[in-house]
Specification:
46% helix; 193 residues; 15% strand; alpha+beta
């Protein structure tokens, strides 16, 4: 299992246990994001994500330890000490699971055991994973207009709305907004045939 290390980039993903739903209502998507911000924003920098009915993808990096500590101390988080990055993700998944289980009257694990993580070790792989996350609604037939999918930050890149996603770093790695848009459009053609 890949350990989540400071100053490294990762593709984090998981799906519902036995392929079951993770999100039962529109409010669940925002709740997941809110829980992520509460449990994890001090630990991770986000570049892309996509929340779909039964799975999710997140492209992120682990902040350096000094920044984690500084941001952690600024927040009112119930845990007493800063923990390893994967532990903060575990808190997110547990909190979200408990809420969904209560909401829909289910028991047991909501997520497949152990979220998946792949280290992103090059700028080319980073670009591929950002595009992959943003085009996932198109790939799985959730939405034909990936640029308008509401549970992905792609529209934020178009409109520059306020967000917790690090647009500047992402666009820099793509070589600017036009390259970012063109790379997505070119890859989307594969799913629009």
């Amino acid at each position: 299992m890949v350990q989540l290390k400071p100053n490294k980039y990762y593709h984090i993903y998981n799906r519902g246990n036995n392929g079951e739903k993770l999100f039962y209502s529109e409010a669940n998507y925002q709740y997941f994001i809110d829980k992520f911000l509460y449990h994890c924003h001090h630990t991770f920098e986000i570049y892309a994500y996509c929340l779909l009915g039964n799975h999710f993808h997140i492209v992120l990096s682990v902040r350096d330890l000094e920044e984690q500590e500084r941001l952690y101390l600024e927040r009112e988080i119930k845990t007493k000490t800063l923990q390893p990055a994967s532990k903060h993700l575990s808190h997110l998944f547990n909190a979200y699971s408990q809420s969904i289980n209560k909401q829909v009257g289910r028991t047991g694990s909501l997520f497949q055991k152990n979220f998946k993580r792949k280290e992103i070790d090059s700028e080319e792989y980073f670009r591929q994973m950002v595009i992959y996350a943003h085009l996932n609604p198109l790939k799985h037939g959730f939405n034909k207009a990936y640029d308008a999918y509401p549970y992905s930050p792609y529209p934020v890149y178009l409109n520059f709305d306020h967000t917790f996603v690090n647009r500047e770093k992402t666009l820099d790695i793509f070589g600017g907004k036009e390259n970012f848009l063109t790379a997505h459009k070119e890859e989307a053609k594969k799913f629009q045939k």
